[in-house]
Amino acid sequence: MRTVELKKWGNSLAVRLPKTILSKAGVSELPTKFEITVNKQNEIILKKQKEPESLKELFQGFDYKKYWSDWEKANPGKSKEEDWGGPVGREVF
User: Fold this and answer.
1) Which of 1, 19, 66, 84 is the most exposed place for a label (fewest CB within 10 A)?
2) CATH of the domain at 11
3) Is residue 10 a part of any domain in this protein?
4) CA angle (59 as vertex; 58, 60 as ends), nearest 5
5) Which residues lie closer than 8 Å to 78 by C-beta, 6 or more apart?
């Protein structure tokens, strides 16, 4: 077990993780994202997020029908197409 200190870093607090601990956890690339939770014993738990291997995995659980339904509620009567304005310069359409 290794002891680390919680220190002030700007307006936040930070813990510096030793390289030996990170290598044991398989962290070698930056940036790396972690999920952080606190259990009932007030222990802080970091879990390294797994990067999605495909678009299918990335959007797993995404409900596009709910997404567009929510969008319609927030933007009633508005077109889903983005208006980029008229041509500027020598564009030919």
Assistant:
1) 1
2) 2.10.260
3) yes
4) 95
5) none
